[in-house]
Amino acid sequence: MKWSQFSRFRRPRQQDGVSLGRAENEKVERVTRAVRRVRVSRNLLKLVWTAGPVTGLGLYGGYYIGYGQPPSPQLLTYFISFTILSGLIGLLATIVYDSTHGMSKEQARADVLETIDILGDLILAVRDLSMEGFEVDVRRREAAVQLLQRVDLSPDGVAFACEELIGDQALGQTLAHIDHLRRAGLYSRIRDLHQEHGKRFDQALSELQPVAPIAASILRERYMGGAPKLQHGTPRDDFFVERVMAAIEQDNPLLMTAADVEAMLVLAFELINGREIPLLLFSYRGKWRLAAALDRLEERRSRYRIAQAAGGNRIRALASWLVEVEALPYEEVPEGLSTPVLVERVLKALDGITRDLSELSGRADHLPNGVTLSDVRRQGDILANAVRLYRMAHEAFKDIGRVHAEFLKAAEEWERFVSQFGEETGQLRLGPGSKGLRIVEKVVSLDEDAREAFCSHIVNYLHGEHLEKRGRRFFTRQDGRRRALTLEGARQLAVEVALALEPHVQLSRAEVQRGVGATNASYLGGLEPGMSAQDKRALGEAMAQDVEQDMSQPAERLALVLVKHYRVQLTDDACEFLKETYGAREQVLSMISQSQAEEMPRMNLLSQRPPVVPAPRRNWYRALAQARRILP
């Protein structure tokens, strides 16, 4: 028998000298801290006071009033002893609880504060990372847009941002004057400036519009005397949650953009600081066949909407990645570009990459000066990733056809049931009663336990990744080496944030994605590098409370969907209910209700189909195969 395998059970041999070790006093320290927090001396003093004079006087007075005679010494001793023993047992139980669960609660609060601190810094870091890959002109425009979205931007800052966008110092000074007048409420003078500089500004804006439509819209708002409001927050991308969830489902972080990463971090920062995001849904009570048909139609419509978004999102993610690797200029694929034009420009970029790779592979024996096989490998990797992303986009657009057919079938079934039951019985009128359509209100938020569980998950993940901050930048430590945080690492972090939120807010559900995308994010322009964790927490809580829960647009969208897609008649009572409850605009509801559901043209679902994305081209694969043959 080999006794060496049992050597770990043998008592270690005593050695001479001094050994260093860690004192095993963690439990003692834990109990000591619990005793300090419970304030034993003060609690004992209260116990003595309660068990002595208070119990004696209370017992003596109550017994004398009830029985007309003083209590016996034995009874008085019993009650005083009972009070002392009960107090000591309660004090001991408090110390035991605080030394066990109290420590975990204290650690949970520390995790929440640490998560707020790290997320606040990561939001700024990811925003800066997303701009690093752009060219100088693009960075200038994107930074100017960030400045113009600040609530507290000074008139000089407005002038500087305008000059960065259109390169006209005189127009920048004009916008600064407009901002001065806006702060004073002198809008009549602003109109005078419009008459003086209107043509010049319109010309500059027309040149900016094709390159940066979002920047042009924000600049026009400033020119008209408007400014961002703290209560309105900042707009979100409607489908950023869908892109993040798609990246998780397909195990491909490249499906989300850098803006999606920032949006996910902002959402988590809001929720752990108390933000509540409202949702508006609807359900039907009445004939079960109508209810089942309504559920099927809503499910198919939701799936069709998500499929449409998925197709566009895949192409947008591919375009963003091509910009990151400098294979496509940002000016050719700005935000707000239509899907057909986006597909056309992505195809052009892929053809260019293929052509370059083919030329390099064909000259493998005589590569140009300064070009090595590693450059060929890099070009091949870019094309391989691009083709993989394009194939996902192609498959997503193919799926839209199948989902569209299911949606059309459910719509035809709904039309048939409504014609048979709805118009005869009047069950499909939005208004009072025990049957009919009912609006369901829900709220997406994190309670205390969910907040602590989420923050504990994030802190454990960040500690496992060895994320640390040095100055303004974040680093991860792997294999003993420190590496700067990249967009790839930020995408993985966004995935982990979504996974940590999923058990508590169900981000994978279509109605939650629609609700989150329909609301504005809290204004976080006050976040600055170097802020303390307490300052970030105070800012996050204040912004979560200040942002308006504007339900008017969701209510108007809901009314339009019910009338247009479900042939529901909006009665006067229903319009009044939507106006008083959710603040829906009367003129919008009046336009919707004046068009009877049965008179509205049926939605042509075929006209809503997105453009077709062609199949991947064969020359892409041929170029990849040719490159693989020459690479070692």
Architecture overview:
This protein has 632 residues and is mostly helical. It has 21 helices and 7 strands. The longest helix has 60 residues, at 73-132.
Number of helices: 21
Strand content: 5-15%
User: How far is the N terminus from the C terminus?
Assistant: 52 Å
* Average pLDDT number: 77
Percent range of helical residues: 55-70%
Q: Over the alpha carbons, how many angstroms does the gyration radius reach? A: 33 Å
Unreliable sequence segments? 1-24, 423-428, 597-607
Which H/E pattern describes the elements?
HHHHHHHHHHEHHHEEHEEEHHHHEHHH
Count of beta strands: 7
Please state the structural category: mainly alpha
Shape, principal axes of CA atoms? globular
**Neighbour order of strands in the largest sheet:** 4-5-6
Largest sheet: 3 strands, antiparallel
Summary tags:
three-stranded antiparallel sheet; mainly alpha; 632 residues; disordered N terminus; two-stranded antiparallel sheet
Summarize, please.
With 632 residues, the protein is mainly α.
Topology:
Blueprint: H1 26-38, H2 40-67, H3 73-132, H4 136-148, H5 155-166, H6 169-184, H7 187-208, H8 213-223, H9 240-249, H10 258-272, E1 277-285, H11 288-324, H12 339-362, H13 373-425, E2 429-430, E3 436-444, H14 448-464, E4 467-470, E5 473-478, E6 481-484, H15 487-505, H16 510-518, H17 533-546, H18 552-566, E7 569-570, H19 572-582, H20 586-594, H21 618-630
Helix pairs in contact: 1-3, 2-3, 3-10, 3-14, 3-17, 4-5, 4-8, 5-6, 6-7, 7-8, 9-10, 9-15, 10-15, 11-12, 11-13, 12-13, 12-21, 13-21, 14-15, 18-20, 19-20
